[in-house]
Amino acid sequence: MGYRVVDPADVDPAPDRPCELRRVGEAAGLERMAVNRFRARPGEEIPLAYHYHDEQEELFYVVAGTLAVETPDRTYEVSEGSLFAVDPGSPQRAHNPAEADDPVTVLAVGAPPVADDANPYDPDAESDAEG
């Protein structure tokens, strides 16, 4: 049996990210899922780019604030205490809109924790192909 308590405040933020990212799953020694805590101020994005995953399922739990998630069909507003699930192959870009009043804090879970599974998605390229 194994147990660990992790305080996200004790985990160093990842460098070179568009918002604060703390890899709490790594700090807990988890191997079958990625667990990250994000804190985005107004105008900050959570991922590095609009993207989709080949294999990974993602789940965003909004701890505080309101998360905006842009998809090819619409932008979802995910309120505090709500979950947003993303299937593999589904493009999304999570962010805190510039006009937001407060930061948003999100706990993101991805499984499996596949390295190099994120693919960039360009919504303009898709609409150009349709036209």
Features:
131 residues, mainly beta, Jelly Rolls, five-stranded antiparallel β-sheet, RmlC-like_jellyroll, GPI/OXD
Series of secondary-structure elements, N-terminal to C-terminal: EHEEEEEEEEEH
- The CATH homologous superfamily: Jelly Rolls
Oligomer: single chain
Poorly predicted spans: none
Task: Write up this protein.
- The protein has 131 residues and is mainly β.
- It has one domain (15-130): Jelly Rolls, CATH 2.60.120.
- The protein has 2 helices and 10 strands; from the N terminus they run βαβββββββββα.
- The chain has helices at 24-27, 123-130, and strands at 20-22, 34-40, 51-53, 57-64, 66-70, 75-79, 83-86, 93-95, 104-111, 118-120.
- The strands form 3 sheets. It has a 5-stranded antiparallel beta sheet with strand order 1-2-9-4-7. A 3-stranded antiparallel beta sheet has the order 6-5-8, with no helix packed on it.
- The longest helix has 8 residues, at 123-130.
- It starts with 19 loop residues before the first strand and ends with a helix.
- The model has no long low-confidence stretch (mean pLDDT 93).
Question: Brief description of this entry?
Answer:
One of its GO terms (molecular function) is metal ion binding. The protein is mainly β.
